[in-house]
Design goal:
Elements lengths: L12 H13 L2 H12 L4 H8 L23 H13 L7 H12 L31 H4 L4 H11 L3 H19 L6 H13 L4 H7 L4 H15 L15 H4 L12 H13 L17 H26 L1
Helix pairs in contact: 1-14, 2-3, 2-14, 4-7, 5-7, 7-8, 7-9, 9-11
Length: about 325
């Protein structure tokens, strides 16, 4: 993991403005992660901040995903924590991961291979419109984020029943993927992260799944290509899937296919920062104005951390 290396990113005036903004306004979690990734700080500080969002049952809640403030554990908030733990390369025997795995094993699925993406409890707390729970809402989410949660059980499972649940759940997701010609870009992101995480399990994956690891990789690459919005002139209008949402490193298999658009994406990021060197979000809530203003600030910190880290690898 490349921690503490900043390269030419430090030559950007906006980077330094963003860093000051992060330390003044972001959540302690994003401020701690910033220190880890850009200044080589120990990850224990970030883990202590993340721990504040974990419940007794091992799942995560309390607005870790800022667009829904449900304090109870949810698979979606637990996925958000999993992405951070994976990124920090936390060992599987760490107590936070052991409790996370226990939560997934003990949480019922709404259909084979699918943990509930949205919970009825969402409606009781401030939330964005797309997190409102209603009957049949899972059809909008499908294997987002369950395909990644399956991979976490395989990768972090230390007991046979944990890994087995992961493989069983993954099988349902791969049967679903096999029949699809297009997916929502969030779901494609989940499949992309899953296939990357399971790279060291290629042989077992190929034995257990309906299509081989290599075929799955090609299928996911094809879906990634279809998701990326190539109309760069319209990137400022709304919520779009941009190249750097999927291609986050020059070693990515799609890098050379989208190299010109990646350059435009970097320039787009550089041209759209505000006076503090950070980015605003492109969506809003339809109610809870006061809470939305807080969530908006939290998202600015998340976006700044994500985008400067990505740009660091290309500049």
């Amino acid at each position: 993991m490349n921690l503490g290396s900043t390269g030419k990113i430090r030559d950007m005036k906006d980077f330094h403005k963003a860093e000051r903004w992060i330390y003044r306004n972001a959540r302690p979690l994003e401020a701690a992660l910033w220190k880890v990734h850009f200044h080589g700080a120990l990850k224990e500080g970030a883990l202590s901040c993340l721990k504040a969002f974990q419940n007794e049952d091992g799942g995560f809640g309390h607005g870790l995903e800022p667009d829904f403030w449900t304090p109870q554990s949810s698979p979606m908030a637990t996925w958000a924590a999993g992405e951070i733990l994976e990124d920090l390369e936390v060992e599987k025997d760490h107590p936070m991961i052991r409790h996370l795995v226990k939560y997934l094993v003990n949480t019922g699925q709404v259909s084979p291979g699918i943990w509930p993406s949205s919970l009825p409890e969402n409606n009781e707390y401030p939330h964005a419109p797309h997190w409102t729970y209603r009957e049949g809402v899972q059809d909008n989410w499908m294997f987002n984020p369950s395909i990644q949660l399956s991979a976490y059980l395989i990768h972090w499972g230390m007991e046979e029943n944990e890994r087995e649940l992961g493989w069983e759940s993954l099988l349902h997701g791969m049967n679903y993927l096999k029949e699809k010609t297009e997916l929502d870009f969030h779901e494609v992101h989940n499949f992309q992260k899953m296939i990357k995480l399971l790279r060291s399990y290629k042989e077992e994956f190929t034995k257990k799944m309906p299509i081989s690891y290599e075929e799955s990789e090609r299928k996911i690459d094809h879906l990634r290509k279809k998701c990326i919005d190539q109309n760069w002139q319209g990137w400022e209008d709304g919520y779009k899937a941009l190249p750097l949402d999927f291609i986050t490193d020059p070693i990515d298999t799609l890098y050379f296919r989208f190299e010109e658009l990646i350059d435009k994406n970097i320039e787009h990021y550089r041209q759209t920062t505000d006076h503090d060197g950070v980015w605003d979000i492109s969506w809003s809530w339809d109610r809870y104005d006061q809470e939305f203003s807080i969530a908006r600030q939290q998202w600015k910190g998340i976006l700044a951390l994500k985008r400067y880290r990505i740009m660091e690898k290309f500049i």
